[in-house]
UniProtKB/TrEMBL annotation, chain A:
PANTHER family: ABC TRANSPORTER ATP-BINDING PROTEIN, BRANCHED-CHAIN AMINO ACID TRANSPORT SYSTEM PERMEASE PROTEIN LIVH. This is Amino acid/amide ABC transporter membrane protein 1 (HAAT family). One of its GO terms (biological process) is amino acid transport. Its main location: membrane. It is a multi-pass membrane protein. The chain crosses the membrane at residues 6-27, 34-54, 66-84, 96-120, 140-160, 220-251, 257-277.
From TrEMBL, chain B:
It is found in: Cell membrane. This is Amino acid/amide ABC transporter membrane protein 2 (HAAT family). One of its GO terms (cellular component) is plasma membrane. The keyword Hydrolase does not apply. Its main location: membrane. The keyword Coiled coil does not apply. It is a multi-pass membrane protein. PANTHER family: ABC TRANSPORTER ATP-BINDING PROTEIN, HIGH-AFFINITY BRANCHED-CHAIN AMINO ACID TRANSPORT SYSTEM PERMEASE. The chain crosses the membrane at residues 28-45, 51-70, 77-97, 103-121, 181-200, 230-255, 267-292, 304-330. InterPro entries: ABC_transp_permease (IPR001851), LivM-like (IPR043428).
């Protein structure tokens, strides 16, 4: 029973970080209809900016994370004005190529600056240590991540459901043309959501290094689970992404523990099954 | 294309008729002839680079298989390496446990690719757009995961090696200089190119273009869209399996990295670079990419990925039709 609780906490923290990594992609896909394969690259950039702040500016992780957040969002803003502007004008296949190209550039840049070794950020003093449940130890940092991610998810939900900006965002996802017609500046909403989504990814990238360690190929390795979450959850549906991310985190952790011979294959099989029954994902809208 | 001029048809001389027949044959098979000529010329001057050239030819076959589904049927995939890897493993296992004949080995690779293509295609081609892209990636990931875990069969991370391949038709022994491998892969590429061209020019190929253009309209015209898509997916998977088998026979090793996302991604890059939906674009893209990557890897391996990334962004931005498109445009301007 206790081992079940530990597994669940682990699965939850994996899943919730995965949600932070994929939330922005869901919005981008819903809004811009761009298959942005470079999305995990922004999480990676966030992680490496935090690493830079920790090693060169001698900051703690908690001080470095806001810097990573702002830095990544500035970069995202810059790219939104250039590469992603071009991406809106070309076919889906070319978008895929454009964003793969961007990912390659990010991977190479990180490799040049930080080297190829695998890095994790130090856990701050306050949050280190374990919480003991019988004979099983749960790292306090994991509990902190679960709480923080749930808080962030709640904040996103509040903004989207209850603010004027959120209403405009939902309108832009549902029907960008009509939203434009009634005087909503869809272009600005799309850009702001893109930048905010990259910020969320950076948050996940900086805080989740104990589970998703930093390495130059980060942007490619974690692209697969992130795309999985977005596709299973449904494009443009943040609730769907949250559900899918938690599901992926939990099922992956359970299956690796119970059926180690299967490795990571179980989760792909389940995801394929879900997508076959619901091609638009768990909570995807029908267009 | 080059139908005989009216004045030429009026000419009753038998030689002219024979000439036009030759011209027509050459014209219809011009891509295959161009590749054949390039293979011969390269053999005359590039003896020291035959191993690299064989890699380029095998890669060209693989990218050709990708063009068949991406360029003609509009199936966008990031998991084509699954079939390449399956073909490589099938040929490697066949050589290791059953027999060493290379031609049968190729067939085994193609059949294995086709089988996996059918099993996965029948399921995933019911979706479209991003879900499809995702599912192709998922299929390749599952297969790679299995290859990694089933160490008793696949050798796990160490891969397969230590198998030998008999001479082709019992005549041509694989040599150290790689001459046999070079002509072997060139032959397979030319045959593959001819088969692909036959397919895309057939009524079936036209149906595929119709589906790519507008699925609903194609279905309303009475085309069994799902069946057509599965069929072309299986053919493409067989060709990719063939390329994998060829690579396993030539290099003598099969590793799990032959199934990886990087292989699928690079093939996409080559196809875009060369030009989508032209068949010969796939060949140009593969050759250019393999040569540049070999050069860059020997000069500056660290910045290679940076170069590819920038190249891709610039290619989509400034040459969306690829090298083949640029060449065609140049040719048109020259007259």
């Amino acid at each position: 029973m206790a081992s079940f609780v530990v597994l669940t906490i682990n699965g939850l923290s994996f899943g919730l970080i995965l949600f932070l990594l994929s939330a922005g992609l869901t919005l981008t896909l819903g809004l811009m209809r761009i298959a942005n394969l470079a999305h995990c690259g922004f999480a990676m950039l966030g992680g490496y900016i935090a690493l830079f702040a920790v090693t060169n500016l001698k900051l703690g992780l908690l001080e470095a994370t806001p810097i990573a957040l702002v830095g990544t969002m500035l970069l995202a803003l810059l790219l939104d004005r250039t590469v992603y502007r071009w991406a809106r004008e070309v076919s889906q296949l070319q978008q895929v190529m454009l964003t793969i190209g961007l990912t390659f550039v990010m991977v190479a840049a990180v490799n040049l600056i930080f080297g190829a070794s695998i890095r994790a950020l130090p856990i701050p003093e306050v949050l280190s240590g374990n919480y003991f449940l019988g004979a099983f130890a749960i790292p306090i940092y994991r509990l902190f991540l679960v709480a923080l991610s749930l808080l962030v998810a709640g904040a996103i939900w509040f903004v989207i459901r209850f603010t004027n900006y959120g209403a405009r965002l939902r309108a832009a996802i549902d029907n960008p043309r009509m939203a434009q017609c009634i005087g909503s500046n869809v272009d600005a909403i799309v850009s702001s959501a893109f930048v905010a989504g990259c910020g969320l990814a950076a948050l996940g990238g900086a805080l989740g290094t104990s589970m998703y360690p930093l390495e130059p190929t980060y942007a490619l390795i974690y692209l697969v689970p992130v795309l999985l979450v977005v596709a299973v959850g449904g494009l443009g549906s943040l609730e769907g992404s949250l559900l899918a991310a938690i599901l992926v985190g939990l099922l992956d952790t359970y299956s690796r523990y119970l059926l180690p011979a299967m490795g990571g294959a179980a989760i792909y099989a389940i995801a394929a099954g879900i997508l076959l029954m619901r091609p638009r994902g768990l909570l995807g809208q029908h267009r | 294309m080059n139908s005989p001029e009216p004045s030429a048809t009026l000419d009753v001389a038998a030689s002219a008729v024979a000439n036009s027949l030759i011209t027509r044959t050459v014209s219809a098979w011009r891509v295959e002839f161009a590749v054949l000529a390039a293979v011969m010329i390269f053999y005359a001057f590039g003896q020291d680079y035959l191993a690299l050239a064989s890699t380029a030819l095998v890669t060209a076959i693989f990218v050709l298989s990708l063009d068949l589904i991406v360029g003609y049927a509009g199936i966008e995939t990031l998991g084509q390496a699954a079939f390449f890897g399956i073909g490589a493993y099938a040929a490697g296992l066949y050589a290791l446990h059953v027999g060493t004949d290379p031609i049968i080995g190729l067939a085994v690779g193609a059949i294995a690719g086709a089988l996996v293509g059918y099993l996965s295609g029948e399921v995933i081609l019911r979706t479209g757009g991003l879900s499809l892209l995702m599912l192709t990636l998922a299929v390749a990931s599952v297969i790679q995961e299995i290859a990694n875990t089933a160490t008793s069969i696949t050798g796990g991370a160490d891969g397969l090696s230590g198998y030998s391949i008999a001479p082709i038709f019992g005549l041509f022994q694989f040599d150290l200089a790689g001459k046999t491998a070079y002509f072997y892969s060139a032959t397979v590429l030319i045959v593959g190119l001819a088969i692909c061209r036959f397919i895309v020019e057939s009524p079936f190929g036209l149906s595929l273009r119709g589906i790519k253009g507008n699925v609903t309209r194609a279905a309303l015209l009475g085309i069994g869209t799902h069946r057509c898509l599965v069929a072309v997916y299986v053919i493409s998977a067989a060709l990719a399996g063939l390329a994998g088998a060829l690579s396993a026979q030539i290099s003598g090793v099969v590793g799990t990295d032959s199934l990886s996302f990087v292989v699928s991604g690079n093939a996409m890059v080559m196809l875009i670079l060369g030009g989508v939906g032209r068949l010969y674009g796939a060949v140009i893209g593969a050759i250019v990419f393999v040569v540049i990557s070999d050069q860059a890897a020997s000069v500056d391996p660290k910045n290679w990925l940076l170069f590819v990334g920038v190249l891709l962004i610039l290619a989509v931005r400034f040459a969306p039709t690829g090298l083949a498109g640029v060449l065609t445009a140049l040719g048109r301007r020259m007259g």
